[in-house]
């Protein structure tokens, strides 16, 4: 008999591998180990230990138990649960869970401090530096803070007025200050905060929907729930999830203000050493509050007591490539595993969450008015058939007039268009060719700032050619339709004096730039902000009184099950940015379909009517939240081989009552990077374990080497 460790490896392998634990090596589930895999040593995590024999083949041995924090039991269980739910290899979510553990450790940084020695020669620049040097700072930060050149700092260092010290950023996080008080809450905020605090104090798994109109103070309320969680247990941890990096910045500032300590920050833009620091501090328990994007769910929390999913309806919680998962659903699953409270917050909750609240599975807390004297904006529809923009323009006369009034009053306008770049399509006037990425069915988007044509799907880009690559005609390429850059161009022509900025993932590529723009907007340093959804949700801009939606119909095109729901949510969020302090707000929606139920519901601000109609349609069709959906995308380079395989796959679909399989059909993007794509859609009754069904189906087919099969539970774009 020997001890056998079953080890999960962060790679897309179908299962854990068994290794023999060497004599004298103490191993427990969750431990990080190095194990041989083929010719290499790989990092892995022990999933289980048992006594036994390796079977007929001698087992390889665990090479080393790494001196690294183990994955706590809840994190390990969650990784395995997520893999089963998403019908994917456990190594996929494990790779996300170990992202911080595998990052390099923070390196010591050279910091400067004032020594107290007076400079031999005093200049205004030198005085500024010595005044700015209130604590250890890098030379660059000190020069920036003092507004002087690097040479001034260097001179003071050479003279011994500043001294250098190597500092490694402290791994520990400051503890939250629980004696601090939050804002004075109004009556309905206090009622919701009290209910959440009770729920958190009671301990154990439970879910609440915090359903409050934009600006009603949901953040204030859930921060009180966080305070209750942190006070209930000196080791308790809190996770706050947000759909966008730009939003994490605003919430980090509010958490820091509320608890007098910076929370751990977690998203793709956090530098690897900082990531490592957060990961270790979460594992050791010193980091008690994390604010992050969906992947923060996979952090090694030891005692997670509260998970907040802010803007829970947001489709950015769905991870679409690599390991496919819906962050909101996994948050509820992690809450269940950890015995934690889960708060889903939104002004426009998803139909799934509303259904759970209606059915009594989730506690439902409502905030129906804005805080203080702020009112919801008036929403008007601009019928583009009746008052179209001038030829080649995108802003209609009524919208331009409203912008002029707003600008004249010294207030701000947000122009919302959920389309990056300058133009979504470039077309040859001579031959009709639409420019696409090589071997891909998606249009190239023109970006004027960079002068390139970019495929938003594959990342391919090329300089904009001067002649049509298809027919060779000179100067025949025309830009069709608007993106944010083009709307900005028009706004500049209309208001040449105004301060105008663009906020999209192309202009705001990191958290620092996002923070800078959000602060500039909040401070009133921008008159007109042209933005995609990256800026249109969650933020508070006190002087923003006009929101213009350039193309309200945009999201309604295309055959997505959630098209109406998502359009409603996005536009309610975007228009909800207007008039959040004492000045009344106005929102104008440009549409060709003013009679559409979504536009009518937005105008009447009647969410309940919209939800009721949409629920009835979904129920009649057995679609989520009344049924379940999954998609299969099979892809391969050879069309005939892919056809044969998907036909065989159709034959192999298990016959199960309550499950219907549709397909194979061409996927909406039938060709990506030279790979053909075919799709199945699967609909199931609510009672069916769809993950188990999909796993059983997949086990019946063996795709040939070049074919890949991806399963998407609860698909969003199909
Ligand atoms: P939501 O998350 O529902 O959109 P926020 O929590 O961001 O709302 O609140 C909107 C604005 O109102 C913020 O500027 C916030 O600071 C302010 N606010 C909300 N509640 C209060 C309160 N009780 N006291 C003071 N300010 C509040």
From TrEMBL:
Example of a GO cellular component annotation carried by this entry: primosome complex
Record note on cofactor: Binds 2 zinc ions per subunit.
Binding-site residues for Zn(2+) 2, renumbered to this chain: 455
A GO biological process held by the record: double-strand break repair
Transmembrane domains' residue ranges: none
Reaction(s) catalysed (UniProt annotation): ATP + H2O = ADP + phosphate + H(+); Couples ATP hydrolysis with the unwinding of duplex DNA by translocating in the 3'-5' direction
GO terms assigned for molecular function: 3'-5' DNA helicase activity; ATP binding; ATP hydrolysis activity; DNA binding; zinc ion binding
Domain Helicase ATP-binding: 199-367
Statement: the UniProt record of this protein carries the keyword Repressor: no
Entry binding sites for Zn(2+) 1: 428, 431, 468, 471
Keyword vocabulary terms for this entry: ATP-binding, DNA replication, DNA-binding, Helicase, Hydrolase, Isomerase, Metal-binding, Nucleotide-binding, Primosome, Zinc
Pfam family, one: PriA_C
InterPro entries per the UniProt record, alphabetical: DEAD/DEAH_box_helicase_dom, Helicase_ATP-bd, Helicase_C-like, P-loop_NTPase, PriA, PriA_3primeBD, PriA_3primeBD_sf, PriA_C
Listed EC numbers: 5.6.2.4
Cofactor section: Zn(2+)
Domain annotation Helicase C-terminal: ranges: 463-618
Entry-linked PANTHER family: PRIMOSOMAL PROTEIN N
Summary of the function given for this chain in its UniProt record: Initiates the restart of stalled replication forks, which reloads the replicative helicase on sites other than the origin of replication. Recognizes and binds to abandoned replication forks and remodels them to uncover a helicase loading site. Promotes assembly of the primosome at these replication forks.
Family affiliation: Belongs to the helicase family. PriA subfamily.
HAMAP family on file: PriA
Subunit structure: Component of the replication restart primosome.
NCBIfam families membership: priA (TIGR00595), PRK05580.2-2 (NF004070)
Protein name: Replication restart protein PriA
Organism expressing this protein natively: Phenylobacterium zucineum (strain HLK1)
Taxonomy of the source species: Bacteria, Pseudomonadati, Pseudomonadota, Alphaproteobacteria, Caulobacterales
């Amino acid at each position: 008999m020997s001890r056998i460790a079953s080890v999960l490896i962060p790679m897309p392998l179908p299962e854990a591998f068994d290794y023999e634990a060497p004599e004298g090596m103490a191993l427990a589930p969750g431990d990080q180990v190095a194990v041989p895999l083929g010719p290499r040593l790989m990092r892995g995590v022990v999933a289980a230990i048992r006594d036994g024999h390796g079977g007929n083949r001698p087992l390889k041995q665990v090479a080393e138990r790494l001196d690294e924090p183990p994955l706590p039991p809840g994190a390990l269980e969650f990784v395995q649960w997520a893999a089963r739910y998403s019908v994917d290899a456990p190594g996929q979510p494990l790779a996300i869970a170990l992202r911080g553990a595998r990052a390099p450790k923070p390196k010591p940084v050279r910091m400067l401090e004032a020594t107290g020695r007076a400079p031999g020669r005093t200049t205004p620049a030198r005085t500024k530096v010595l005044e700015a040097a209130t604590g250890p700072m890098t030379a660059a930060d000190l020069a920036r803070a003092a507004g002087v050149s690097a040479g001034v700092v260097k001179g003071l260092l050479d003279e011994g007025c500043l001294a250098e010290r190597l500092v490694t950023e402290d791994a520990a996080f400051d503890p939250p200050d629980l004696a601090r008080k939050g804002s004075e809450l109004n009556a309905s905020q206090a009622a919701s905060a009290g209910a959440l605090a009770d729920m958190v104090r009671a301990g154990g798994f439970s879910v609440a929907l915090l359903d409050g109109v934009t600006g009603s103070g949901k953040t204030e309320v859930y921060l009180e729930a966080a305070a209750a969680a942190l006070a209930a247990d000196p080791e308790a941890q809190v996770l706050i999830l947000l759909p966008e990096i730009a939003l994490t910045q605003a919430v980090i500032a509010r958490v820091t203000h509320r608890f007098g300590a910076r929370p751990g920050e977690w998203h793709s833009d956090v530098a690897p050493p900082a990531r490592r620091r957060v990961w270790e501090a979460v594992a050791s328990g010193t980091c008690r509050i994390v604010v992050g994007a969906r992947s923060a769910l996979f952090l090694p929390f030891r005692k997670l007591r509260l998970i907040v999913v802010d803007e829970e309806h947001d489709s950015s919680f769905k991870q679409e490539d690599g390991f496919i998962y819906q962050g909101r659903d996994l948050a509820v699953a992690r809450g269940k595993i950890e015995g934690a409270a889960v708060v889903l917050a939104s002004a426009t909750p998803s139909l799934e969450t509303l259904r759970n609240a209606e059915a009594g599975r989730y506690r439902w807390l409502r905030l129906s008015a804005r805080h203080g004297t702020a009112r919801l904006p008036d929403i008007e529809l601009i019928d583009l058939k009746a008052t179209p923009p001038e030829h080649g323009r995108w802003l209609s006369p009524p919208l331009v007039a409203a912008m002029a009034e707003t600008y004249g009053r010294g207030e701000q306008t947000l122009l919302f268009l959920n389309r990056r770049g300058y133009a979504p399509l470039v077309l040859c006037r001579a031959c009709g060719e639409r420019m696409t990425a090589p071997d891909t069915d998606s249009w190239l988007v023109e970006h004027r700032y960079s002068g390139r044509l970019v495929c938003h799907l594959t990342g391919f880009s090329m300089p904009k050619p001067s002649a049509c690559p298809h027919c060779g005609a000179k100067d025949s390429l025309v830009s069709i339709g608007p993106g944010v850059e083009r709307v900005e161009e028009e706004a500049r022509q209309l208001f040449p004096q105004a301060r105008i900025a663009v906020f999209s993932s192309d202009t705001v590529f990191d958290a620092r730039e996002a923070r800078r723009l959000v602060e500039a907007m909040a401070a009133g340093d921008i008159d007109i902000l042209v933005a995609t959804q990256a800026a249109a949700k969650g933020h508070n801009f006190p002087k923003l009184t006009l929101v213009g939606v350039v193309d309200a119909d945009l999201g309604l095109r295309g055959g997505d099950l959630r098209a109406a729901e998502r359009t409603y949510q996005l536009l309610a969020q975007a228009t909800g940015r207007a008039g959040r302090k004492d000045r009344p707000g106005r929102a104008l929606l440009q549409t060709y379909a003013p009679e559409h139920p979504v536009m009518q519901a937005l105008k009447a601000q009647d969410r309940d009517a919209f939800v009721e109609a949409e629920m009835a349609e979904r129920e009649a069709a057995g679609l989520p939240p009344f049924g379940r959906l999954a998609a299969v995308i099979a892809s391969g380079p050879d069309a005939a081989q892919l056809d044969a395989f998907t036909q065989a796959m159709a034959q192999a679909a298990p016959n199960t009552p309550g499950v219907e399989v549709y397909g194979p059909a061409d996927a909406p993007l039938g060709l990506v990077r030279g790979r053909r794509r075919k799709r199945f859609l699967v609909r199931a009754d609510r009672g069916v374990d769809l993950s188990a069904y999909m796993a059983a189906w997949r086990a019946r087919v063996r795709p040939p080497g070049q074919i890949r099969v991806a399963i998407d539970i609860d698909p969003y774009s199909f």
